[in-house]
Amino acid sequence: MNDPVLQLRDIAKTYNAGQAGEVAVLKGANLSLAAGEVVALVAPSGAGKSTLLHIAGLLDTPDTGDVLIKGEAAAGRSERRRTMIRRADLGFVYQFHHLLPEFTAEENIVLPQLANGVSASAAQARATELLVKVGVGHRADHRPGALSGGEQQRVAFCRALANSPSVLLADEPTGNLDPDTADQVFETLMQLAKDTGLAALIATHNLELAARMDRVVRLEHGELRGA
Which of 57, 23, 32, 29 is nearest to 43 (CA)? Predict the structure, then answer.
């Protein structure tokens, strides 16, 4: 296996649940993902999948443990440096696309590139390339409200990949789609991962889709099994 691009080392996270006291969501979770590897993250609702993804994506910090992105440890880094890592190396896709409704599909992909210092012409070229690759190039000038659910999620994938990240983190990316559309969007995601060589960690309740990924890890009692 290639050197891991994402590593979770002994990640622990506890939340205060009010009268219920403290709840340990993660208890020493460990995981390594290599470039080009697509891994399913499976767990019951409320087990901590979203928490794990937020920590892996440097959107939250663990109580103990560390996250390494391409060998760089996140622990102790300034928020500015963590933001730079997120922009350069991490892409995010959620169950609901969260596209900006006032902008076109193309503009939704251009904006994160501009925020990362890419020129407008290069950002537009990249957006066009990605939209064509996922089969919605002809919808580039449409706003999200004029797109189908599957088209919106494909645009969300393109936005996540706009800055050529090393790692894609997806939280139930097909959970809001009908089965046929979910299957098509999943195939698009798998092809993108293989074509670009990124590592992908995909939380899903869909065991059939999970079985088609390179590996399945299960979050059980705060620990990752099969990692």
Answer: 29
Q: For 22-76, write each residue's pLDDT tens digit.
A: 778 889 899 999 988 999 999 877 778 889 999 999 999 999 999 999 989 998 8
Percent of the chain with pLDDT over 90: 44
